[in-house]
Amino acid sequence: VSPFKRDAVASGTYSTGPADVASIDWDNLGFGYIATDYMYMMKCDQGGTFSNGELQRFANIELSPSAGVLNYGQGLFEGLKAYMKEDGNILLFRPEENATRMQTGAERMCMPAPTVEQFVEAVKATVLANKRWVPPPGKGSLYIRPLLMGSGAVLGLAPAPEYTFLIYVSPVGNYFKEGLAPINLIVEHELHRATPGGTGGVKTIGNYAAVLKAQSAAKAKGYSDVLYLDCVNKKYLEEVSSCNIFVVKGNTISTPAIKGTILPGITRKSIIDVARSQEFQVEERLVAVDELLDADEVFCTGTAVVVSPVGSITYKGETKKYGGGGVGAVSQKLYTVLTSLQMGLTEDKMNWTLEL
Ligand code: COI
Predict the structure, then answer these.
(1) Ligand 1 pocket by C-beta < 6 Å: which residues?
(2) Which EC number(s) does the record attach to this protein (predicted)?
(3) Hey, which residues does 309 pair with through a beta bridge?
């Protein structure tokens, strides 16, 4: 069953024509929220099956004050991007990876999840319905934000009796205010993002609220973001508030191994494959904070941040600089290979893109 709300399609109440372009300043997109035309909603009852998904006009949603997501944080989110090609067609990047990651997270958070097919079809429908908000080639992308939440009312601590899957979208440019310029990180050694056995490895909403305090303090001191250490040894790199981290030394690129406390980024996974295809040696392992001292380059990866070069890292008052104020050669190479593929500028030999 198509997730399109057929009457909306038939009556032409949303636009799909490439000539119809939203009137916003496409040259100055950052990563701020811009409301678009449509969102996608699908509900699941106690039976555990999602059905009757539909596009709706983008609007505020109604929730019980007692909803599981509001009271006990029973919620997950995803993030993926759509790029417009020169021919006006749209490319999605590995949406089925987001679908399976949501399923893994849902299992951890005691929630039912949409099937991979439901997820991907819903993403396609939402993007097409908001086509006029997809930035023109070279101007940015349409950020797609799927949410899964316990929307049913609970009072005692328990899984919610009803769940809502929702997708909204927003046109975006660069995530960091630095744009494509290198970012400056500070290593946090007191507050932690995740604990063994906790939920650090899934994209639950609480993981992101938990880093706001350290992130705000870092920003107040002029840093772009925070790099977290493991909470047991306080020695091994974990990730940055919103992205994964990679350390380059010679021809070897190392990144913290996925071990339950680190978010398994889809860009992380893709960059590992891209780097190997470019003859780099990639190691997924414990990466000690000391290794930052003799690294040649450091970069972050994520859907929102793409590949962001790191210009400096400060740890216990000492600052190590990378790239001489510019973008390191390895970061630049991997960024170019990945984004060319995502934007449809090079042949997709990996079969990662989905054209709409
Ligand atoms: C993403 O990169 O898509 C994320 O989910 C990170 C978010 C904090 C912007």
Answers:
(1) 79, 208, 242, 302-304
(2) 2.6.1.42
(3) 299
* Closest ligand 1 atom, residue 265 Cα: 2
Distance, CA of 137 to CA of 283 (rounded, Å): 34
Alpha-carbon distance of 197 to 191, in angstroms, equals 17
Report phi then psi at 204, rounded to 5: -90, 145
DSSP, res 323: G
Going by their DSSP bridges, the two strands 80-84 and 252-256 should be labelled as: unpaired
Which tokens go with 65? 């004050």
What mean pLDDT is predicted for residues 347-354?
Answer: 95
Q: HSE-up of 227 (CA within 13 Å, CB side)?
A: 29
Distance CA 50, CA 216 (A): 38
The ipTM estimated for the assembled molecules is 0.98
Question: pLDDT, tens digit, for every residue of 100-117?
Answer: 999 999 999 999 999 999
Report how far ligand 1's centroid is from the alpha carbon of 193 (Å): 15
State the Rg of the chain over Cα.
Answer: 20
The yes-or-no answer on residue 177 being catalytic is no
Q: What is the pLDDT of residue 11?
A: 37
Task: Report d(CA 50, CA 100) in Å as an integer.
Answer: 15
Predicted TM-score (pTM) of the model is 0.92
User: Per residue in 159-189, pLDDT tens?
Assistant: 999 999 999 999 999 888 777 789 999 999 8
Where is 213: in which H helix or E strand? helix 212-220
Work out the angle between the directed axes of helices 95-108 and 116-129 (0-180°, nearest 10).
Answer: 120
Nearest CA to ligand 1 atom 5: 79
Catalytic pick from 124, 139, 203, 320?
203
Tell me the C-alpha distance between 215 and 199, whole Å. Answer: 19
pLDDT for 5 equals 37
For the stretch 261-278, pLDDT in tens is: 999 999 999 999 999 999
Residue to probe by mutation, ligand 1, list 193, 239, 240, 243, most atoms within 8 Å of CB = 243
Specify the residue for token string 């705000």: 216
212 burial class (0-12, 13-18, 19+ CB within 10 angstroms)? exposed
CA distance 263 to 62: 30
Q: Could you tell me how far CA 231 lies from the centroid of its own chain? A: 23
